[in-house]
Design goal:
Radius of gyration: 20 Å
Shape: elongated
Largest sheet: none
Number of helices: 5
Strand content: under 5%
Order of helices and strands: HHHHH
Helix content: 40-55%
Distance between the termini: 75 Å
Length: 111
């Protein structure tokens, strides 16, 4: 006679580990908060609750992967998401600091 094993439900497997719901919100707020000097920083290795899909060309993806590998050769092992978040933080910090003269504005402005 076959023996059936009882498996836990998905809710049991993916339940929050922190009893205080505010702790997760506080961590997200701290990760998104600018530094005291007003500069922006990438969120780094924290749990990200929001998702955004970005479509890139094959060449852009290859460039991104080559940049990731170049960083790895320098001893900095990062994934593509972390690399992109750092680039976004840099672009937004430049926009905050330089406004209409920011590199992001120059690249996005019609020619």
């Amino acid at each position: 006679m076959p023996r059936r094993v009882s498996m836990p439900a998905a809710d049991d497997l993916f339940r929050p580990t922190d009893d205080t719901p505010r702790a997760a919100e506080d961590k997200r707020r701290l990760a998104a908060a600018p530094e005291p000097d007003g500069t922006r920083r990438a969120s780094g290795r924290v749990r990200h609750d929001e998702k955004m899909t970005v479509y890139v060309t094959a060449g852009e993806l290859l460039d991104l992967e080559e940049a990731r590998l170049a960083l790895r050769r320098r001893g900095l092992a990062v994934d593509r998401g972390r690399l992109v978040r750092a680039a976004i933080a840099m672009a937004l910090a430049d926009l905050d600091e330089h406004g209409d003269e920011a590199e992001l504005v120059r690249r996005l402005a019609p020619e």
